[in-house]
Structure formats: C-alpha cells, structure tokens
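Morning, I've got a small favour to ask if you have a moment. I've been staring at a protein lately and its backbone has me curious. You're getting the sequence in one-letter code plus the fold written as tokens. I've dropped the whole record in just underneath, so have a look:
=====
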Amino acid sequence: VQLEESGGGLAQAGGSLTLSCAARGSAFSIKAMGWYRQAPGKERELVAAISRGGRKYYVSSVQGRFAISRDNTKNTLYLQMGSLKPEDTAMYYCAAGQSDYFYGLDYRGKGTLVTVSS
C-alpha cells in the first residue's frame, strides 16, 4: 500500500486547509485510516482516525475544529482543518491499517507540511 498526501502549506491563524491522501496498491485491504502529526521537538500524535465503516476518533486538541472523512470508492482520505492555530504547525502523515484498530495504522505516507502563522 502506498499513501500520498497533498494539500499542506501555509495558513494564517484562524484559517483553514484541507489535506488529502490517496491510497494506491493493495488499497482494497485497507480498513482504518488516519492522520498523525509531528511538530519539531514533539512526539508524534494521532490527530484523527476513521474506520472503514465511518467510526471516528479525534485527539482532544482538534475536536470541533478538524473533520476527517474518506471516500472508499476513490481510496482517498481527507482532513478538513479549520480555526487553525500556530500549535497545529507540524508535518502531517497519512496512515492506514488492515484492521479497524486505530493504533494499528502500519502504513505511512511521506508527509505534508502544515505551517500556521500567528
């Protein structure tokens, strides 16, 4: 499975960005998908995840601001990010797994950088 992110860039605080992730290869085997992020000097964290059936998870810091969705017909994952804050600045990685266990997302993309200016 290959994952390719797009949509990162520079945004102002309070603004919005939408990330996309296209899954290729054995995409039929994918169940849960999600987004991790890692900021400089910080640990990687699971930001949001979604099962194949639509069950969702959000880390508390993005609850109400970010929305995860997927189009199973296109093997594509999305992350709509709103009310962005400078602390959302990080490298965002798409991830996927062959089960619906959100912490078993073994496949990772190369990442896309999101920078939020104050």
